[in-house]
Amino acid sequence: MKNVKKCGLFLAAAVLTVFSLVAAAAVISEKYEQWKRDNSGIPDAVSSVSAGGTCRLTVVANSGKIEDGEAFASQVLEMYRENLFQTIHFSTDIGEMPGILDITVYLKRGDIGKKEPVMKIYYDTEKGMRFLYIR
């Protein structure tokens, strides 16, 4: 009878260990995927609001820093024009770009609401592009 109890306890411990390892692997995998997104270096729009000919975007750089602000701003504008953002895809049935793009840039998604933006990009179809480093 003692051997049966020992065997049952051993089996329960083994099942609990396997379950714990699977749960830990899932958490690690999720954290790794988030790290890959946050460090991919590929900008992504995560929020947009359009009203009255103005489109306000929140973009994450998915990088630790922005090396060249002008090149980054041009890349984001091109991604908007070509509808290449991963998280948000814009409707193409309207047919034209809004007159003004007002873009707030953060380094990583987790910075939104916790840190100040690192950059503002302002594009007016009549006046061209301006960008401003905040930090």
Give the secondary structure arrangement, pairings included.
Elements: H1 2-38, E1 44-51, E2 54-60, H2 69-82, E3 100-106, E4 119-124, E5 128-133
Parallel strand pairs: 2-3
Antiparallel strand pairs: 1-2, 3-4, 4-5
Q: How is this structure best summarized?
A:
With 135 residues, this protein is an alpha+beta fold. It contains two helices and five strands. 15% of the residues are buried.
Would you give an account of this structure?
The protein is an alpha+beta fold. It folds into two domains: 1-38; 44-133, no CATH class. 38% of the residues lie in helices and 25% in strands. It is built from two helices and five strands. It has helices spanning 2-38, 69-82, and strands at 44-51, 54-60, 100-106, 119-124, 128-133. A five-stranded mixed β-sheet has the order 1-2-3-4-5, with helices on one face. The longest helix has 37 residues, at 2-38. The chain starts with a helix and ends with a strand. The mean pLDDT is 83.
Structural class: alpha+beta
Low confidence ranges: none
Oligomer: single chain
Helix content: 25-40%
User: Biggest sheet, in brief?
Assistant: 5 strands, mixed
Helix count, DSSP H or I runs of 4 or more residues: 2
Give the C-alpha Rg.
23 Å
Structural descriptors:
single chain, 135 residues, alpha+beta, 2 domains, five-stranded mixed beta sheet, 2 helices, 38% helix
